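Task: sequence design from structure.
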């Protein structure tokens, strides 16, 4: 993974020649820019925590490892029955939405333990909200592995209804 190579100082090229261009949009660079500037007069713990939270938000969007971690947790905590859905927030510059995602049958498989209901799959917005009987639905993927809602409550209701289907 590029992030690991960058963080561990691995060269991108097998030559002593400098690259023709430099990519400063990698994850390490983006997170690094969130560090407090040394000339900033406010170096308080609060500002540092704000920067750290911003970095968590940025990296969590791209590197949320719950998909692997959840299997370890289930084993360690002896969770039975197994977890079927995970609900999380997705935020970008345009909107804030919630996702309900079905957990895969194993870390190396795409098949879900309990996909979202068939009648919802491939539907969006009003049509989906009507079919599900849940306000604010935004989409359900054709395979049923993920769906969206405008609110946490809506995503939770999607998960609860799916469990009963």
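Answer:
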């Amino acid at each position: 993974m590029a992030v690991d190579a960058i963080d561990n100082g691995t060269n991108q090229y097998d030559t002593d020649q400098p690259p023709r261009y430099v990519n400063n949009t990698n994850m390490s660079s983006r997170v690094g820019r969130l560090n407090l500037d040394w000339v900033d007069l406010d170096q308080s713990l609060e500002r540092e925590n704000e920067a750290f939270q911003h970095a968590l938000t940025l990296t969590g969007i791209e590197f949320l490892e719950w998909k692997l971690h959840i299997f370890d947790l289930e084993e360690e905590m002896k969770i039975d029955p197994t977890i079927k859905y995970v609900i999380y927030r997705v935020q970008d510059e345009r909107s804030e939405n919630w996702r309900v995602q079905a957990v895969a049958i194993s870390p190396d498989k795409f098949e879900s333990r309990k996909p979202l209901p068939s009648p919802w799959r491939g539907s969006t917005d009003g049509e989906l909200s009507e079919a599900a009987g849940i306000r604010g639905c935004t989409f359900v993927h054709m395979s049923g592995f993920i769906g969206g809602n405008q609110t946490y409550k809506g995503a939770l209701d999607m998960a609860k209804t799916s469990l009963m289907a």
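The longest helix spans residues 45-63.
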